[in-house]
Design goal:
By secondary structure, this protein is an alpha/beta fold. The protein has helices at residues 21-32, 45-61, 79-93, 116-142, 166-186, 213-220, 231-242; strands spanning 12-15, 36-41, 70-73, 98-101, 148-153, 191-198, 253-256. The chain contains seven helices and seven strands, in the order E-H-E-H-E-H-E-H-E-H-E-H-H-E. The termini are far apart. The structure holds NADP nicotinamide-adenine-dinucleotide phosphate.
Length: 272
């Protein structure tokens, strides 16, 4: 990575769900840009340790030397665990400048099948955990000089309905309002809050189709760019929003989706 991309020198970041997929790519990108990163995970410690090694290598390879990256276990749906994690991370890193609310799960929840526990679980991880983490981070940002940055991992399903996945749709719609509400509340206190909304990205979350050529082609047919995205392509957007390059941007969602939100089915004239 060229040194002109070292935009996060001496920044300290927490990435929830940083052990795999998009979160892990964000961890590596932040490390390559000079940040020290706390990598949150819920249950797969082996993957978290691999992400830690990858972060250390990214720092070294980019010429930033040895950085005290760390892993931090906490289930985002357990608010006490989230609070304990934030406290431990701030103690370990000395301060926190950037929080990425990325941890997320996708579970089926048909619109005609009430499942309060399932709904509570998806909203607990994807939305309530992110709300709690954001509030604790903002309290920390306000307790010292320098402001801070929050970035939420939303989804194209922030605006495109996802039938059969009611909890997921609700959680991503909620993240849109979390982003805009906090951005407005703290815009004049040096705190920027934005979101990245990925489309179809090649991660474990999409194991149902990503390794099956036929199913993958069926998914990619809907994407105007004709292909799924990589976690690295999405991570660059997080790095931009976390950096001073985005110093005048708050309350926005950037869609990294290969054009999915352009409603490709309407490319050909259909109504006249
Ligand atoms: P992934 O590969 O399945 O990784 C999920 C990450 O979240 C893992 O690090 C996992 O840690 C962590 N996690 C899961 N449940 C957690 C919990 N209860 N508490 C804390 N961490 C938890 O997923 P991904 O595709 O990278 O997705 C990351 C984010 O991007 C999600 O918010 C997702 O909704 C969003 N997104 C993804 C896509 C896509 O196409 N992949 C598209 C749009 C939006 P463990 O390994 O320890 O469980």
């Amino acid at each position: 990575m060229p040194s002109s991309h070292a935009r996060l020198l001496d920044r300290r970041a927490l990435v929830t769900g940083g052990s795999r997929g998009i979160g892990r790519a964000v961890v590596e990108r932040f490390a390559a840009e000079g940040a020290t990163v706390a990598i949150n995970y819920a249950s797969h410690e082996k993957e978290a340790r691999k992400a830690l090694e990858a972060a250390r290598a990214a720092s070294r390879d980019a010429g930033h030397g040895e950085k005290p990256h760390l892993i931090a276990r906490a289930d985002l749906s357990d608010l006490q665990a989230v609070e304990a994690m934030l406290k431990a991370v701030v103690e370990a890193l000395g301060r926190l400048d950037i929080v990425v609310n990325n941890a997320g799960i996708q579970q089926e929840l048909p619109g005609d099948s009430p499942d309060p526990k399932g709904l509570e679980h998806v909203l607990g991880v994807n939305l309530v955990g992110a709300v709690h983490c954001s509030q604790l981070a903002i309290r920390h940002f306000l307790s010292r000089e320098g402001g801070g940055v929050i970035i939420n991992t939303s989804s194209v399903h922030q605006i495109i309905p996802k039938p059969g996945f009611l909890g997921y749709s609700l959680s991503k719609g909620g993240l849109a309002n979390l982003t805009r509400t906090l951005a407005l509340e703290f815009a004049d206190r040096g705190i920027r809050v934005n979101a990245v909304a990925p489309g179809a990205i090649l991660t474990d979350m999409n194991d149902s189709w990503r390794n099956d050529p036929k199913q993958r082609a069926a998914v990619e047919r809907h994407i105007p760019m004709g292909r799924a995205g990589t976690p690295e392509e999405v991570a660059t957007v997080f790095a931009f929003l976390a950096s001073e390059d985005a110093s005048y941007i708050t309350g926005q969602t950037i869609f990294a989706c290969g054009g999915l939100t352009l409603y490709g089915d309407f490319k050909q004239n259909w109504s006249t």
